[in-house]
Amino acid sequence: MAIVVGLLSTAEGQAALAAAKREAQERSVPLTVVVTRDDGGPERQAVEDDLASSGLVFSVVGGTGDLAEDLVRTAHDAGAELIVVGLRRRSPVGKLILGSGAQRILLEAPCPVLAVKP
């Protein structure tokens, strides 16, 4: 069992990461962080350093660039007990034109999904 979250530099992504970290600590389960573009950048290193200093068991995995697909696949592969996602407010037209990654995650997830706002 694990908690799965995506690594995004947005406020929503940071809120999701903080919530996922809390959930993993409270449940005493590993945290799996999905990096949509596995470039080894400074943000990834900072997150890895923070997680290592927290004492959490964690892994960082690369993704394809489609965060919804990556989170669902990783949750399935890891036997996750929870996916954590950050949400932002969007207009009905924005949802229609852009689609909704969060909706895809909610519909396709093999486990419960915790949605957080910044």
UniProtKB/TrEMBL annotation:
Protein name per Swiss-Prot or TrEMBL: Universal stress protein family protein
SUPFAM superfamilies in alphabetical order: Adenine nucleotide alpha hydrolases-like (SSF52402)
Superkingdom per UniProt: Bacteria
Pfam family, one: Usp
Gene3D superfamilies per the UniProt record, alphabetical: HUPs
Protein family: Belongs to the universal stress protein A family.
UspA domain boundaries: 49-117
Organism taxonomic ancestry: Bacteria, Bacillati, Actinomycetota, Actinomycetes, Micrococcales
Organism: Krasilnikoviella flava
InterPro entries associated with the record: Rossmann-like_a/b/a_fold, Universal_stress_UspA, UspA
